[in-house]
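User: Predict the complex.
Assistant: Input components as received:
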Amino acid sequence: MNDGLAGEHQSGAMQVVMIGLGEEKFALDAGLVREIIDPVPVTKVAGARAFVPSVINVRGNVIPLADLRIRFGMPQLDNSADTRIVVIELELDGEPVLVGVTADKVYEVTEISQTDVQQTPRVGMHWKPEFIRFIAKWREEFVIVPNMERILN
Amino acid sequence: MSTMDPTEVFRQEASELFEVLEGALLDLGQRPDDRELVDSAFRALHTIKGSGAMFGFDKVASFTHEFETAFDRVRKGEIKPTQELISVALAAKDYIRALIEDPQSTDDIIGEAILDDLRRFVSSDRPSAPVAEIAEAPPLAPNESRQAGWHLYLEFESHILRNGSNPLDLLEDLCKLGPCFVVPVTDGIPFLDEMDPEDCYLKWDVKLHAACDKDAIDDVFMFVQDEMKLTLSPLAQVEAPAPAPLFQLLDEEPAPPAETVAQVMESAAPVAAPPAARPERKAEVASEPKSDIKPETAPARREDAKQERGIATVRVQAERLDELMDRVGELVIAQARLTQLASAGSDLSIKMIAEEIERLASSLRDTTMGARMVPIGSLFGRFRRLVHDLSRDLSKPVEFVTSGEDTELDKTMIECLADPLVHLIRNAIDHGIEDSATRAANGKTEQGRIELAAVHSGAQVLVTVKDNGGGLNTARIRAKAEEQGLIAAGAVLSDHEIHQFLFHPGFSTAQTISALSGRGVGMDVVKRTIENMRGSIDLSTRPGQGTIVTLRLPLTLAIIEGLLIRVGEGRYIIPLSAVEECVELTAEDERSRGRNFLNVRGNLVPFLRLRELMAASGAPDRHQKTIIISTGETRVGLVADQIIGNHQTVIKSLSKLHSDVTIFSGATILGDGTAALILDVAQLVAMAQSKVEKQHISEAA
């Protein structure tokens, strides 16, 4: 993780997909993102952990659909015209796993400058610090770069 | 298309040949007089030798050659294949396999030891009479003036191996000049920690019993002359018969010339047979027209067999078959969607196409599944060796009988089945079969019997391991379970329930821990492996008469027949193989809220309300349906809102993130493209049972 960060620092910029969850903006590392799809019918999985409540069919694969809003204690909005599913690929226990993430809105693919990276403040946050890789500044706004591996484990 | 590594091709071919060889050797143990078996073992050996040399496995070729030589007397019918001989032959087979698969791990010393054993057995019952002559040795003219031969002392420079020379090859060349008696001089070998693995420390003392001149010997060492010291002295006189027939030893005892000729010709392989000998050999063949064991005919037959095989089968990499299966799975899903769309519309031609594609897809699916099917006999073959070895190690004579080898199973299942079966068979021999004395005391035959059978039963395959041993000791299992605190002392349990403790992790009733079993690791793993394959395991035992373990397995892992049901808004699949019947939940059952028992033709069957389990929203349908599922003996009812119908289910595994969800074994994709979950029958049954037990406890309290 640290090595990856160091590499990104040197290159100066990081490609991200900017998504909106509730009032907040999150930046997902574009390297993780496989595709962005319109909402599809979901299948609830009884007994699953709250933040991965269902599965969806993405091109013949049944993948879990995670809800970051639950992990960050945000209200769950109903699907709107802007709602998308961002399919990301993560390494969990050394195996690649495809996961869908519900986003209230997907803004754009952009670059955030490494010089704008802020260390996560210890206080003044109502989210678990381990869920956050770092906070960066983007167009006069602070965006959160989440640590997806931690969030989903 | 990727080209295959020729070495890999050889390895695959060899591993098939090893199975043939092992099978033949083991059969030979049972039927020592079967010439056909000796021949098939020999053919396998010969092919391994031939292709081994072709692909540069020189060690394999030379060792196999030695093996063949030693075994030659068995082929000629001079000695009977005893159990000991078979054991050594099996060890030799293992060694060749190791040479091919992992040459680094083997050691020439082991090979030499095996060969020594082999030769000892082969020659043990031999009178002072002729020692086998082998193909490569040029037949000696019997009336040639006898020269004693040569005594050689070979000392190579230590770096000789680095130049690519192999002293052993030179020794072999030397042997071609005539019978050799080679003794390695091991004085110069340093301690292990000082040893350089790339140096040659051995020296050799060779007695060459051949009437050749010095030049012939010098020729052998022509290329290494500068790197060695060769001391050559003529042997003073004919040495007394060499101590043991070690290296292609030809008896030097004076024999009447005619006899020697006949002997040489009889034993020489066809290729090397001197032309003069041909007519006589032919005559011999003619005189025994029935015998098909003549060395001359064997290679030809092998060629035939090989050609037949080449036409009949194509070797395909396993991964390609898996990929094909995935694609077919996707096609089946796409086809289901097309069918649904077509039936919703009114276009006749689209409907016809959809039907056509449905038919094609289902036959394509069947064909692909068929291509992945492998007869289970390939697996059974491996256990014969296991039984053979165990029976020897434990000195319990055991007869091993297999049936239903033709039963076909998905290849991935065959792979998964190997370990559980090894366990069950070990258990059967170690715990099941009593020792000979006990058996005799109980009026049983001294030889135990283990039967391994596979049989089709509907959409399932039953694999049974049956022994005629002492049966399970129910009292002891019970005592152990109480000791481990799994049950309260004095609890009322059926024998069947008590036997289930055997599947408990860490449970072992063996009083002493042996190398084979008794550590209590195993049966739980067996059970888990079988359940992961969506199979089940049953035990039945009769005291004093033996135990039968039955594994019930689905035919394939990739696609199942499922029953599609609806619970609230959600749709779920129940594997059809587990479904016994569907009944309506009567108003009476509905009312008995507290009990959760159904009355199915006089039997009490506990039921689970899937609506509660799935936390379904919305109002339940008025007429609830119950699907009775079963695993082995236990039956459980599942209450659903609606039974939709059967569904070809392409199984997709659930992601890691859902590994904590136990009531679903996987997922599939329905005709409209949504995902549906497949219920894990075994888990649901266990859940219902524990619920019943809890109820018992609360009622008792």
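The first strand of chain B starts at residue 150 and ends at 156.
Let me know if you want any component modeled separately.
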